[in-house]
Amino acid sequence: MAKKILTTPIQKSDLEGIKLGDVIYLTGHITTSRDMSHRRVIEEGKTLPVNIKDGAIFHAGPIIRTISDNEFEVVSVGPTTSMRMEQFEYDFVKATGVRLIVGKGGMGAETARACKEFGAIHCVFPAGNAVLAATEVEKVESANWCELGMCETLWTFKVHEFGPLIVSIDAEGNNYFEEQKIEYNKKKDEVLEEIYKHVDFIK
Predict the structure, then answer these.
(1) Is residue 25 part of a domain?
(2) 14 to each of 20, 84, 91, how far by Cα in Å?
(3) Which residue, of 21, 43, 58, 59, has the greatest Cβ tally within 10 A?
(4) What does DSSP assign to residue 146?
(5) Which domain covers residue 85, as residue numbers?
(6) How large is the angle between the packed helices 86-96 and 109-118, nearest 10 degrees?
(7) Looking at the 3D structure of the chain, how many domains does it have?
(8) Torsion of CA 147, 148, 152, 153, to 10 degrees
(9) What is the pTM (predicted TM-score) of this model?
(10) What are the backbone angles phi and psi of residue 163, rounded to the nearest 5°?
């Protein structure tokens, strides 16, 4: 099977056929965006200083070494827990037109609704691979809202085959983590009943 690569700008049609659990890669640009940038856009009504329409964001707080005023080296860029942005993500996707959201762990119903209504997907970058992710950054193209601190700055990276990215919410709003919870709960009672047979001597 050919490697699936999305290239920014990403069109809605590019997401057709991408399903839960698929592994994809990103070439082009991705901008780090986490708690504070989401709050500024949604709660304060500010416009992002970088255009991410048809683009990609990374819920991440990177470690960046400054070489000169306009030159940076990415030391590591590990994903941040995406669920922290859940309360903002529907409105954020609506306001910005972002197509690809990358982070750690799953997201909830509001993000799934945004993906379905506006044509976007959420992917998981495997945790524990922050240094690997840094090696896939070809260049730091810009840094915005630096007053928020290193982790909350909007860092725009040029990347080539950035990944692996595992699809957790597709453009139809299907949510891998939520579906797995349902399957888990179906099996849980049966498994617990079997366990209780062997530990019923415990009071």
Answers:
(1) yes
(2) 15, 27, 22
(3) 58
(4) G
(5) 4-175
(6) 10
(7) 1
(8) -10
(9) 0.86
(10) 160, -170
Total number of residues shown for the chain: 203
Alpha carbon distance 153, 69 (integer Å): 15
- Residue 97 within a domain: yes
Residue 187 lies in a domain: no
At which residue do the structure tokens 């049966």 appear? 190
Active-site pick, 38, 59, 122, 198:
38
Q: What share of the chain is helix, strand, coil (3-state, %, to 5)?
A: 35, 35, 35
75-84: per-residue pLDDT in tens? Answer: 999 899 999 9
Catalytic residue check, 38:
yes
Buried/exposed 123-152: b ≥16 CB within 10 Å, e otherwise: bbbeeebbeebbebbeebebbebeeeeebb
The model's pLDDT over 64-113, given as tens digits with 9 standing for 90+, comes to 998 887 889 899 998 999 999 999 999 999 999 999 999 999 999 999 99
